[in-house]
Amino acid sequence: MIEVALTARGEASPWMRWLPFIAITFGHVVVGTTRPELERLRVHEHEHVRQYERWGAAFFAAYPLNSLWQLLRGRRPYLDNCFEVQAREKEAAAVTGDLTAAHSEKS
């Protein structure tokens, strides 16, 4: 897995505020706006890496299709996307110290 910060500074450059993400995962590559943001979102983004490992290339279609499905159901395409829900659950488990949930392959 590779992690890339777009800037090593603690603050994002002015042009980065136009990006629609703070961190994003493409397969085994995690790109973040800054090193501190990568550290803050590491558990969340690593869950997306695990999702990619489980789904393979189909993940690149499954993720946007799930967002579309949520939208068609009148829900929030990003927040209710099942992949994002799962990543937030892993993140919350890591923060609260629930190591069973944080390292479970079922979640």
Features:
107 residues, alpha+beta, 3-stranded mixed sheet
Structure description:
The structure is a single chain. The chain has 107 residues and is an alpha+beta fold. It has 5 helices and 3 strands, in the order βββααααα. It has helices at 35-40, 42-55, 59-72, 82-96, 99-103, and strands spanning 2-7, 23-26, 29-34. The protein has a 3-stranded mixed beta sheet. A hairpin with a 2-residue loop joins strand 2 (23-26) and strand 3. The longest helix has 15 residues, at 82-96. It is globular, with a radius of gyration of 14 Å. It starts with a strand and ends with a helix.
The strand order across the widest sheet is 1-3-2
- Poorly predicted tracts of residues: none
Nearest-angstrom radius of gyration?
Answer: 14 Å
For the secondary structure, the number of strands is 3
* DSSP helix fraction: 40-55%
| Main pleated sheet | 3 strands, mixed
